[in-house]
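Bug report

Summary: structure tokens for Glycosyltransferase differ between web form and batch submission.
Environment: batch mode, default settings.
Steps: 1) Submit the sequence below via batch. 2) Compare with the web form result.

Sequence submitted:
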Amino acid sequence: MEKIKVLHITQSVGGVETYLRQVIQNIDRSRYDLSIASCEPSLEKLCALHEVPYFHLNMSRGVNPFVDLQSIFKIRALIKKQQPQLVHLHSSKAGFVGRIGAKFAGCPSLFTPHGVSYLSFTGLKRMVFFMLELLGKRFTHKILAISQSEANRCVYEIGHKSENIHVIPNSMTIPSVPVLVPDKLGNLEGEIKIGTIGRLTAQKNPLQFVDIANGVIKGNEKVHFYFLGAGFHEDMGAEVKERVQYHGIENNFHLIGKGDSIIALNFLRQLDIFLLPSIFEGLPYALLEAMYEAVPCIVSKCDGNNDVIDNNDNGYACLVTDEFVAAITRLIKQPELAKSIGEAGKQYVINRHDIANNIKDLEKIYAEI
């Protein structure tokens, strides 16, 4: 049987990189021939590790008509040269220019937003990016959403036809035995450790994270807060440090630079509570990974988080800072409750987010398209 050639195109890393790693490691490589085009060095290393062809593409992060037009023609030329049967596009920028390039090349495409673009902005910027999504709709073949919330936005806000949208939730490898990894992080300070993983950008709402930390620390100085992922494609690092200084919690608040998957696992296994006050999400891998490690999770009520957290059952979903502080305080005071919440979260991930099951649905979608 001839292999189905799928070209993945992205500009982003983080959750997208984790997604691609899961696909590469679990898809039936005897039936599917994968390649990746991106501008990120980490993805080039990922491809080299798994013997997947990699193609370098320059794409601008913001709106840059000249560079974006160049990207469209480069993507079209790459598709014409490589002749994939399907192009799978990830994130807003690659999704926009890639859909147009694939359309011009006459190749069907599958677009995964990983969080629709306009949710990152307010005011005029939000309107501009929403209009770009409406424009992109004209060039869209099929959509693969990573959560039902993401699919709903595509249908009810952007106006895509529901029959053109598939939903497969972000998934992870569920090992048969606990994974043993070397300690690359060392011991974190504090009797009680609360943390998150992400970039210091508006999406992850780091200023509210600091405000929540302040509310908890003022009532219990044994608690330390950690943010893993600082210094990587961030634009709010200075603001976060200023807010920490304003509250006077420097001794109990820690920023840690971005690490690899082993450091992330070292980090999660030391946490007592995982905190994610994001403004929006697609469906965060960091949350799934924390839940799988049986860390009780407290999150914001936003897309992605709402798809995973059943409030008061396998975690807590909050809106305002006082709610977050109250939920954290409750779990600190009731360790048995924290343990049961963590175990419920782990079982949820095992039941619904096992890549061994969900990769079969992805293969089916690839074959159908």
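Above is the batch result. After comparison, the two runs are identical; trailing whitespace caused the diff. The chain has 14 helices and 13 strands. Residues 192-352 form a domain with the Rossmann fold fold (CATH 3.40.50.2000).
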